[in-house]
Specification:
Layout lengths: L1 E6 L7 E5 L15 E6 L10 E6 L13 E5 L9 E6 L2 E10 L2 E5 L8 E2 L4 E11 L6
Antiparallel strand pairs: 1-4, 2-3, 4-5, 5-10, 6-7, 6-10, 7-8, 8-9
């Protein structure tokens, strides 16, 4: 499942500090108090007029994406095998990974508890997920 939040509205910058150092996932290193530059998240939106925000609803894409994640969707990108897409199948929106096998196309969940969906004449690829923002529950 999937729910829309908003259409991307370019113009106002969302500036955040970009650390000069890389963030280590192993053992911590001494802190570096260096900021490289201000990062505008709009730099990651190649097609503003075709970009939408939505919220993931459900667990079919776990562990890659989780319920409540914010998705940035670009409708101008041509979907290719391996892309996570927003698709309309049998009249419903769904978020799945696009897979090709020979001449057949599938919408594949990441969670093995869900079945793969074979694309047919009722399937429309609506957009490609450009960015997935996930944050842990802080409660």
């Amino acid at each position: 499942m999937f729910s829309f939040i908003a259409k991307h509205e370019p113009g106002s910058a969302l500036l955040l500090p970009l650390a000069l150092m890389r963030m280590r996932a192993g053992f911590p290193s001494p802190a570096e108090d260096h900021i490289d530059r201000q990062l505008d998240l709009n730099e990651f939106i190649p097609h503003p007029a075709a970009t939408f925000y939505g919220r993931l609803d459900g667990d079919s894409m776990e562990p890659v994406m989780r319920d409540g994640d914010l998705l940035v969707i670009d409708r101008a990108i041509e979907a290719k095998p391996g892309h996570v897409v927003i698709a309309i199948h049998s009249g419903d929106f769904t978020v799945k990974r696009l897979r090709q096998s020979g001449n057949r196309w599938f919408l594949s969940p990441e969670n093995p508890a869900y079945p793969e969906i074979e694309c047919n004449e009722e399937t429309e690829i609506w957009g490609v997920v450009l960015i997935n923002l996930h944050w842990p529950s802080l409660s």
